[in-house]
Design a protein that fits this description.
transmembrane; about 70 residues; transmembrane helix; about 60% helix; membrane
Length: about 70
């Protein structure tokens, strides 16, 4: 199963690639869909942040670990 942090990192890379595609002057296809690439990356990043990683439920009444002083 793919981890949520991996999907978020991929979404960040997609957004950066969208910015590069939007700013480059050589390929009209990439320039035309640069904003769409950024939006797809942004939505993916937002959804993975909203869903978030699964957290294990903590047992109530369990003593917490003390830090080293």
């Amino acid at each position: 199963m793919i981890r949520h942090s991996t999907i978020q990192r991929t979404a960040e890379i997609v957004m950066v690639c969208g910015i590069i595609a939007l700013c480059q002057p050589w390929n009209l296809f990439l320039h035309r869909y640069g904003l769409t690439i950024i939006i797809v990356g942004l939505l993916t990043f937002m959804i993975t942040g909203w869903v978030g990683p699964r957290q294990k439920p903590q047992a109530t009444g369990a003593p917490e670990k003390e830090g080293h002083a």
